[in-house]
Amino acid sequence: MQPLTMRRLIGVLLIIVAGAFWYTKLAEVDMGSLNLPKQLDLPIFWIGYGVLTAWCMIPQLIRTPGAKEVNLLPNAPMPFSNQMMANSDPFQMHGMWYVQWEGVLWVWDDATSNWTQAQAPPQY
To answer: Measuring CA to CA, which of 29, 50, 66, 123 is 20 to 30 A from 95?
Structure first.
């Protein structure tokens, strides 16, 4: 099995054991026949137990990125640099709105409230 899966399973098992212990303790069930060590009542034991359980459960708390969020391309092309795309939806870049129409890059001009032809932004 994978190490992260084993950590998760151990974390779930630790939570179940702690829940069972505290349920029996709070329900005042007689646990004298179990011969449990007296250190179980110390706060330092439960702090360590909680830290260990949290460490085991961390992989479950960290969200794994999905396929849509992972880009394996070294340099993804910017929308205006794709010459095969004749038309595009408006997109925002450097605080301005751009659109590509029939191979020409247009920028929205707030002063005239119209699209004006723009130079391509510098490539980095």
So the answer is: 66
